[in-house]
């Protein structure tokens, strides 16, 4: 923003100085000493026009500076909205996954209890058969 303003001001002052130098180049050396009041009046008119141009340029620059801010704010709001949506989706998926994991753990624990019970029953049957076989021999 500052660079654009600097360039605008520089170009405006360059325009003023070039208009003043063209006025001085056309006057003779005799009237050169009397040119200053005329150039001051002309410069005053140019300065008023230049001030108006400067005000318009500042308005354009400030408008351009506000536009990226508005666009940036809109993009940020859009991104924040998407992030919030993704966060909610992720939280829901995480909750579903944790629910499935817990259900699987419960099922596994139940299967392990059944297997231990069956294993103990088989061990008891095996011990009984071993005892019966020993008694037969």
From TrEMBL:
UniProt keywords, alphabetically: Coiled coil, Signal
N-terminal signal peptide: 1-21
Residue ranges that the Swiss-Prot or TrEMBL entry lists as coiled coil: 94-121
Protein name, per record: Uncharacterized protein
Organism the protein comes from: Mesorhabditis belari
Source species taxonomy: Eukaryota, Metazoa, Ecdysozoa, Nematoda, Chromadorea
């Amino acid at each position: 923003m500052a660079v654009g303003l600097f360039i605008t001001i520089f170009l405006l002052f360059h325009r003023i100085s070039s208009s003043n130098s063209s006025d001085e180049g056309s006057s003779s050396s005799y009237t050169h000493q009397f040119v200053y009041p005329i150039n001051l009046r002309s410069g005053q008119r140019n300065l008023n026009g230049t001030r108006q141009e400067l005000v318009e340029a500042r308005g354009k620059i400030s408008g351009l500076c506000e536009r990226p801010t508005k666009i940036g704010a809109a993009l940020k709001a859009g991104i924040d909205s998407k992030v919030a949506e993704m966060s909610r989706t992720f939280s829901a998926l995480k909750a579903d996954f944790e629910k499935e994991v817990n259900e699987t753990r419960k099922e596994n624990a139940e299967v392990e209890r059944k297997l231990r019970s069956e294993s103990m029953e088989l061990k008891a049957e095996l011990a009984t058969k071993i005892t019966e076989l020993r008694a037969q021999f």
